[in-house]
Amino acid sequence: MAKSLGDVVIDIEKCKGCELCIDACPQETLALAPRINQKGYHYAIKVQDNCTGCNNCALICPDAVITVYRKIVK
Amino acid sequence: MGELKLMKGNEALAEAMIRVGCDGYFGYPITPQSEVIEYLSREATPRTGMVILQAESEVASINMIYGAAGAGRRVATTSSSPGISLMQEGLSYIAGAELPCLVVNVVRGGPGLGTIQPSQSDYFQATKGGGHGDYHLIVLAPYNVQEMVDFVKLGFELAEKYRNPVMILADGAMGQMMEKVVLFDQQPRKTEFPEWATTGKPKDKPHRVVTSLFIEPEVMEQVNLRLQAKYREIEQKEVMFQTIDTEDADYIFTGFGLGARIAMKAMEIARSKGIKVGLIRPITVYPFPYSIYKEIAPKIKGILDIELNAGQMIEDVRLAVEGKVPVEFFGRMGGMIPDPESVVEHFEKVFLGGK
Amino acid sequence: MGIQVQEIPINPEIVQDENLLYCKPDTLTPKPFHYCPGCGHSTVHKILMEVVAEMGIQEEIIGVAPVGCSVFAYDYMDVDMQEAAHGRACAVATGIKRMMPDKFVFTYQGDGDLAAIGTAETIHAANRGENILVVFINNAVYGMTSGQMAPTTLPGMVSTTSPFGRDVHTMGYPIKVSELLATLPAVAYVTRQSVHTPGNVRKTKKALQKALEYQKQGLGFCLVEIVSNCPSNWKMTPLESNKFIDDKMIPYYPLGDVKVPEVK
Questions:
Q1: Does residue C56 lie within any of the structural domains?
Q2: Shortest CA distance to B252 belongs to which of B222, B221, B292?
């Protein structure tokens, strides 16, 4: 059975920590970083290695800071 | 020599818009200039493909002009005083975004809904800005139907040269009267558009933005400085006026548009009585021809300013002569037209201690 | 102290160009959005520009920005744009489209711009069937001027100018713009969407694409109303604001197509 492996790259300096991606992620892959970026926002980070590349986080991200990769493995 | 025709001012104006190769006209009917949109609706599109659109208001029509001029097109609107008041917001934005266009005000008496008869009471509004912010329209004041035609062509040339809105400041009489006119030949419509125009982002070049918004005060000041430099250049290069018999004159009659026309007749009457009267007629009321008044002031005994208002241009005339010569006023308001005999009578009273 | 979270590094086997699924479209400029965290405005900017990129019309489209929070839309949308006076976007768009009927033209307007000060321009552009796309962001509040009542503020909803809640007896009812415009015969397509969940973002993007396709076919005026949030002025977190959309906004402003073109 084919399996979908995903990953996300987050432009943390442009992230405003709105948490919409965290809420939208069905895998609970994302969380807010304890650190803040230069603008003073806690930014989104990947905290679990279980991304499926569903793209929900990127779709909902108002600031277009998430780049999504997906690899289908047989 | 172009085609000679007997035409009503408003229709001659409309005909000139077609012949100058206008791309579009957006307007709203208002007396005394509704013939413009009626004539264009009949004539324009079949002849040149010019777009004619009756908008829902003058507020809308001036903003349609903004959009169309921002696309680099040659566009015009016309209205009369109350409608021009509604356009002031749009004109301020057009001046701020530096868009060329032609706006015609066929002035009627005010304030408020006023009257539909001719007046010149929008001089301040036209020449000093009109809307909010530091800006100027280039303002041309026709005194006959021929100039209603010629200033359409001149107006677009100036508008495009300076990226600035141009106003033809006419009045109800100019719009409604019939005179013979020489029409210039049909010019082709433009096929190339300025580099700044929003016609779709050019490949591998930055997108174009038409805006009057510059939120950083440092930038906004620079924009204003650039605008002011442009206005100074216009004041240097584009002043137009007419003088008649000023060489031997002891007195000067002055006025713009219809006021000047009445002054011309009054001047003839005065001359026939042996009074040496000359005439100065500003053709551009912005930029105002201050220098001709300043130059002539030491050589004469007085100036009589004739306007169809409470005395508006007279402030510029007085500014120009710097108190060197008395400047008196004669005018009628509310759509009443002064007759030349009363002008001379008033002149004799104030300057000759007459009857 | 919050919960300890550990950042996981990217997986270089997956993060490869050939596996790229989604990135910010080239039709957006590199400038970071100035909008508040979680604001739907930038989500709509993003998907609108994705549609422009996917349709390959970046060089054939002209946008009109409003006055309101999205007054700087042209700083982000990398297409030719004009900034209109408050409420006049549909008149400006009319001027552009009438001069260049072969180009795509859209306006992007908020509720104050479109449904208060610009009501006449909107209705008459719609009534003339101007072949343009109007993207209408309805977040029930004046955002840029910091939280005053909008024509779309819900009954009872608190704003800085309805501090005791919108009293419909003195302040009127919220205007349902989509339903209002759908009554006009020259209007081709009216839909109300939202961007508060990934699924709704997908649907809204589809609606925007449809509207531009209809414009290409010359079908006339298309309105895509987007029920959106304003976390800052609603005094909510972004997540709370999205819940408010579900709980309060959508019951008053139901999502879905209000008018679709007849299939020929």
A1: yes
A2: B292
